[in-house]
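During data preparation, a discrete fold description was generated, as reproduced here:
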Amino acid sequence: MISVNDLSPAELAALLHFHADAGVEWLLEDEAVDRFAEFEAMKAARQGARAAPPVVSSAPTPSQAPTQAARRSSAAPLAPPSSRAAPAIPDEQAVEQARFAAETARSLGELKTALEAFSGCNLKNSAKSTIFASGSAESGIMVIGPMPSADDDREGLAFAGRNGQLLDRMLAAIGLKREQILLTNVIPWRPPGNRTPSGPEMDICRPFIERQIALAEPKAVLLLGNFTARFFFGGNDTIHGMRGQWREIGIAGKAIPAIASLHPQELLTAPVNKRLAWADLLAFESRLIRE
């Protein structure tokens, strides 16, 4: 086994980044835990729970009764019942609760409070952070990504880590800073293992992201990534078939212009696509100038 003392700083940083992407957030417990003793105790408790009192074929005599009573009182106590998770809220009920919580918010601040208090989506149970819009809505510019990454979840901010650094450079290329725009994600909680959210999970999260857009009242929206584009535009096309085309998304009875482009992660994976993203950014900039 290779010791960490044998790794270079670059190799150690790569290893830590790998663990972070895998969802590892703590390498050590605050206090030492003897897992072997814990397992043995659990096994002994289960065996005690399965142990049944001896079966007597005939009724005990008066002289036998005290002996059997004492035997029952000295038997090992049954293990306490294991705690079970609260039953899941039916999807339809959770969607209604999400819609009510979102619609009653009258500002982005109120909506953030409502989202942080909402417990009807199982994605929240495994996530460390609730990701909400950051930046400023005054510019009328909104950039929306898919779901939080491991870096986002760890830092509590949309587009953190390498993706965020690349996005900052992309925005700077058209004269924007993240502090000047409203930056958020469709899904506020990181799915376990970065899996794609299920249909019911998307339905539960939809009222919150749509309310963010309605309250921000952007004049133009930039959608990043395949998931985000499908979420708002519908269909099963890939991002390469949806990018670079101005469309309208209906939010609270208003038609808001939106254009899709590649997510920074896709550009890090395939840098050749940066030319496509650059063309989309120029189209986005042109629309902002006209507005």
About this structure: The radius of gyration is 27 Å. Strands lie at 134-135, 141-145, 182-185, 220-224, 247-251, 254-261. Residues 62-66, 68-87 have pLDDT under 50 and may be disordered. DSSP finds 13 helices and six strands in the chain.
